[in-house]
Amino acid sequence: MPRFSLSLLLLLSLFAPVPSSRLPSCYEVRAAFQLQQVGRARLVPEVPLEESDLQICDNKASTCCTHKMEESYQAAVKRELAHNIQALNFELKYMIDAHISAFQGTFTYLIEKAANQTLSLFDSSYQPLAQEVQEPVRELFTDISLNILGEDMPVEGAVSRFFDALFPLVYNHLLSPTRAPLSEDYLECLRLTRQDINPFGPSFQGMVTELSKSLWASRMMKQSLNMAIHTINSTEHAGMTRECTRALVRMQYCPHCQGLTLIRPCVGYCLNVMRGCLASLADLDAPWRDFISLLENIAGQMSGSHDLELALLGIRDMVRESIEYALTQGRNLTSMVEKVCGQLHEEISHKQPREVTFQNDEDVDETKHPSPAHVRREFIMYMKLSKAFYAVLAERLCDGDLSVRDGSTCWNGEDVVESYTKNVMSNDMKAQVNNPEVKVRGRNVVISQVIDQLRHFIKVVSL
């Protein structure tokens, strides 16, 4: 090839057009917008805009965001924060709900077992009463059940009604078995005079005292568990302030406007934003810790002097002691009854004299069931671990994928940096006055009400 031709080709190559780099595009922003289900893709422009109507994300250069997108971002951060808080609450709520179910199951089991053991006492030892006593026994244990569930069912009234119903049966079948059947009026007189005559001795008051202590502890535990669920649920529906919403958008989505869809917030930045948003929730820390301590105290009483299982299963022995006391006072009781209700005459009766035979409690069939103490102990151990639940919410939300530790490039609310340089505020509400990322104007009304309710509950139960 001639030399001039080669030189010409080299010269032309210097001025040949070079392929341009890829034109600016909002493709990645649109993809993230759709993938994270923020809104419809058509809201995202095809290419960055030189001018925009943004009110939250302040971009000095061209942007892939619009005001409509900001509105979608605000809705998205509200959903995401609520979802994240619900996710953190889920495990705690699950454990409490599981214990409520376990508590109810154990309680139902103990009630049924104690009722059956009490009925078996009459089948084995006081056969003449066995048929007629079934309804009073069932009513007694129904009243006990209602008491634990929080109904207005005083223990003394329930026990008193049981012994009012028991006395006519004991008198009719055991104390005067050879006399003529008692009339309804006479039986009613026996019911009405039982408290004045006191045929069952000290066992009545002992039964009231033991049951009152144990049922109080169990009722307080059930109410405490319901209070815990109410507290947790309230934190999920407290709502977010305008300042919090805007701060979350700046933290999570404003980088997208610059095409930075993969950059994550600096951890210090994330903590400031979350602590500002959750300032009212952090106020729950102190009363929640006191509440957990209250749970521990109630659980301790339930496994100690106020053991529900021992109290319920002890009803059988107390009823037996009461009847035996009445039998030893037979002559005196008959004399007092006849003075009040009238004298009875000996008549030929088809009633059989009482036959008293005793069986051990071991003769009653035992159904396998988890130990109430074991269930309670496991639950309290878990709840102790949740004492700092509201103190570390911001930390838990900023852990994992939401933010990155210093040392990696991260977003500080304005730009990509190596580390976050502003002061990181503590969880305390007073510290939020100086929060550089979120303006905290005051306490959340809903959360403040929950705090007041929690404190009032602790005060009432602790009396």
Automatic annotation (TrEMBL):
GO CC aspect terms: cell surface; extracellular region; plasma membrane; side of membrane
Protein's cellular compartments: Cell membrane
TM region(s), chain numbering: none
Keyword Cell membrane: yes
Membrane topology: Lipid-anchor; GPI-anchor
Keywords: Cell membrane, Glycoprotein, GPI-anchor, Heparan sulfate, Lipoprotein, Membrane, Proteoglycan, Signal
Stated family: Belongs to the glypican family.
Name of the protein described by the UniProt record: Glypican-5-like isoform X2
